[in-house]
Amino acid sequence: MKHRQVLEMRKSTNRDPTNNHAASIAVLGAGGLGMAAAKIIAKKKEMKLAAIADKTGYVIDIDGIDPELLENKKPGDIGKRTDDAISEIIKSSENFDGIFIALPNLTNRFIPDIVSGFAGQGYNGVMVDALKRSQAVEMIFGLDNMLNDAGITYITGAGATPGLLTCAAAIAANSFMEVIGVDINFGVGVANWESYRATIREDIAHLEGFNLEKAANMTCAEIKEELDNRNGILHLHNMEHADDVLLEKAGIVSCEKVKVGGVVDTRNPRKPVSTTMTLTGRTFDGAVSSHRFILGDETTMAANVVGPALGWMKAGLEFHARGIYGVFGSAEIMPRFVL
Amino acid sequence: MKHRQVLEMRKSTNRDPTNNHAASIAVLGAGGLGMAAAKIIAKKKEMKLAAIADKTGYVIDIDGIDPELLENKKPGDIGKRTDDAISEIIKSSENFDGIFIALPNLTNRFIPDIVSGFAGQGYNGVMVDALKRSQAVEMIFGLDNMLNDAGITYITGAGATPGLLTCAAAIAANSFMEVIGVDINFGVGVANWESYRATIREDIAHLEGFNLEKAANMTCAEIKEELDNRNGILHLHNMEHADDVLLEKAGIVSCEKVKVGGVVDTRNPRKPVSTTMTLTGRTFDGAVSSHRFILGDETTMAANVVGPALGWMKAGLEFHARGIYGVFGSAEIMPRFVL
Q: For residue B334, which residues of chain A lie inside 8 Å, CB to CB?
């Protein structure tokens, strides 16, 4: 890995446009988020897509994979077919500066187990996830010592929410002596649920009367029927969302004061409500007031998850180059704009 | 200095409430911002006010100064009178983990010269400023090698704007492939201009027909007359504000695409407009959209400048403990909520 080079990149904003110091990134998952990551990385000078893997198989090309090859295809279609692609990525992991985990996470253990696999096989680069559930993020924090010993710099909860909005809350908190509450209300619109199967399935698991196991066992037809019954719209309240754990870990506010909910329209790319983070606090001079961070309605979930995730990847590469390892939450480190 | 202890604090959110590891902070300046800093630091477990200095003199008490002693008083009234208080702070600087520079900055050289003085006399802790003008911030960046060699971790432009809003812009940028523009429009209300003489004087320097020299040479009566002519309200456009330099330095957007303006009411603590940062960009999928960060109207300039400045002080203490020195802009590091 080219740690020194990554560090040097940071020190200079007028970088050589022909530089070959782009960090090699492996993307785990090739659903909506994984494919968006492939497209975004292809447009970045500081990163290249060196591998992508999902349940169909994997492709590795350390010179950079052209995302057009993946258009309407799966990794197994253009690379090697296997039902154990993650193990193949782990075997080749010395080639990757960073791993972005964009896999569905229907059981809490799934991603922590994969991460342990990387550490156990000697991987010592950067890892970033876009996990959403509090329990899964807590399990990742439980790997802090293991990842620190392995020399892995890991950033968890590094998507949109948790992620971009959590980090905005952490910054907003600085105006206040005491944070009274954080309220995140998201709007998501997708043209059809099939493009974000795993995400929508996980959203269904948060509905009243559902849980992770039940959602995981539903057939696609059952998901479709459930969505039909709700006119394609999911109203979510008091979700188990790791913004709470991440803000508590950063010392900003205790878990129970963080509320996350939202509205998901599975039939319309237009957002049903503007995604807003509202942080309410008390200032040193006694005023109670709220700072708000509002995402532009035209920005998609993919843009708001993957862009920040790669921003945290860059931050992680910088920390790693400085020898700073272990697990960090997205409310503890600032994502760094990737050139 | 207690670097190891500061670092340890970061690793634990369940800190010993009786710990004596509070970082010793010296505040330079005892105007509106300096006095707010004294009050805020007094309420924080992780910091203590070890010194405060202005043109009247200075007080040093490494066990912590009670800010009530300063109520309606100046440092020279309760400590030692001298017209060279900064030199006295420099002489004692080995006692301070961090220095917050809250001095008026009517010439661009003033604060960079003070910083050079600290480095020249062997200070090797953390320094944070709330400078506003682009040229002054650029001069601080010019000290990077000197401060790096001295072992000083310095964060510049670390107030509200530049500062809190610049950092929010840097985070918001991650959703986009390209940032088209950043627009900062602030509203400030102060009950009377006398509480924020230096700040209001600097704002007047930005008005058409005025400059820094002219504003610096105005008598208080002339300032009052100018404010009377404008019914106490200053409309500011296209200000020379370091948000531009800081965002360019962080690789996010070129200087000329950052616009800063605002409305200052010098007779009413209520804000005439809500302070808003709007970042417009183009996403990977071609959408043009804007994220916004809006400050609560009830939060004062003091809360929004000093809270974040101390947040960057904590971030600087963490970096310093890890041996990371030199100059950083407020768009490159995340401020860390101070307990």
A: 167, 170-171, 332-334
